[in-house]
Amino acid sequence: MSRVKVLFVLMLMVSVVLAACGNNNDQEVSNEDSNQDANQDVGEAIELDMWIHQSGEAETEFYQNRIAKFNEAHEGEIKINVQVVMDDGGSSYNDSLNAALVAGNLPDVLALDGPFVASYAEAEIIAPISQYISDEDKEDFVDSILEQGSYNGELYSLGAMESSVVLYYNKEIFEAEGIEAPTTLEEAWTWDEFIDVAKQLTTEDRFGLNLFMNYGVGEWYTYMGAPFVWSNGGDLISEDGTTVDGYLNGPESVEAFEFVKSLFEEGVVSLTPSETQFEEGKAAMALGGPWIAVSAENAGLDYGMMPYPYSEVPKSPSGSMAYAISSQTEYPEAAYQVMKWMTNEESTIGLSEVTGMPPSRKSAFESMEEYNELPKKIMRDQVVSTAHARPTTPAYPVLTDAFAQVFHAAALGEDPKGILDQQVQRVERELRRFNQ
């Protein structure tokens, strides 16, 4: 998951201006571009450039193998030339995209971090795909994938994998303490139950909970922490996307950040956990993503999964890398065929097996037996029933940084309301750029 920094916001400002300046030229060639697929010489393969983000070795190899199979299956029709682009967990991948936009050589198909779809769409880096996807295919994607991929009523992106945050627990510690873990969404702990158990599990040499604060002040805090607001009946931005005042700093949000603050005040969470605190048994529970299951298994830990704790209504995180087609591609229909291939049932199942991330398609869930039984059934149920996409707004880079700053401040014991009011002013200034 990319931790996009403020530099991306500045680059987007440049991108929007450049895109606006180029509208007249784009209009002059639009009719020609729309006919490029049809005018391609018979027998001559359409060549497309595709960017994928650098990831773990196994994941990157999977992408390359799937693309090789696409080329084999579409020999003489479409050929993909793939480039693996550096993704350092910061702004490098987005910087590369913005540089390509400025130079006018965006790839035809690109990977992007799902929560930033609106920013890319507003900057005219990506093009809508609503006209290409069938209703039947669209229906097979879980709702959160369609939610994160949509902006202003148009669908722009599709993901091959989803994600979630579950409450992991150390089975040995729970058994010793006589604590029974919930096994269904209906049994999920409320905030009060959650903090009571965390306090019970906290000892001199063990924390009750790990929130992975070592990941740094960035996208992780919003991804992991926003459900505290949503489950309390709050939101980060208005439904029409025009304001955060009264939402990000609304009473439900303030109460949610106060709860986060209390976790640290009670001493159940460390501000500086070790990289493997949960795997080493130094934390009895961990609110983490699917990758924690992989590291826990590698460490030989006997662990379980529980649903995300809630206040009023169960909510859980969602969102991951997705695919989109470039606004500059001459062959949008062919580019969509690549997207369709990389997000079909076979791709989503294979990617899930390689990464441990839940698939983005309902049919894939039905085909993967491990998601029909514990512990992964918890993850599946959250993706299908309680997943909530992060806000689709072009101001998201600033909004998510604001959320992360408040979350960090609450963890440090500062007053959430005061920090929220300050951050709201900052996000409102950014929103005005898009509301004029």
Detail the topology: elements first, then pairings.
Blueprint: H1 6-21, H2 23-34, H3 36-39, E1 46-53, H4 57-73, E2 78-85, H5 92-103, E3 109-113, H6 117-122, E4 126-127, H7 135-140, H8 143-148, E5 150-151, E6 154-155, E7 166-170, H9 171-177, H10 191-201, E8 207-210, H11 219-230, H12 251-265, E9 283-288, H13 291-298, E10 303-306, E11 321-326, H14 332-342, H15 345-355, H16 362-367, H17 376-386, H18 396-411, H19 416-435
Parallel strand pairs: 1-2, 1-3, 8-9
Antiparallel strand pairs: 3-11, 4-11, 5-6, 7-9, 7-10
Give me the strand/helix succession. HHHEHEHEHEHHEEEHHEHHEHEEHHHHHH
Output the radius of gyration: 22 Å
Multimerization status: single chain
Fraction of residues in helix? 40-55%
Q: What overall geometry do the principal axes of the alpha carbons give?
A: globular
Order of strands across the biggest sheet? 2-1-3-11-4
Main sheet specs: 5 strands, mixed
Average pLDDT taken over every residue: 90
**How far from one another are the termini?**
31 Å
Class from secondary-structure proportions: alpha/beta
Low-confidence stretches: 1-35
User: Given the structure, what is the number of helices?
Assistant: 19
Q: Which percent range describes the beta-strand content?
A: 5-15%
Number of strands: 11
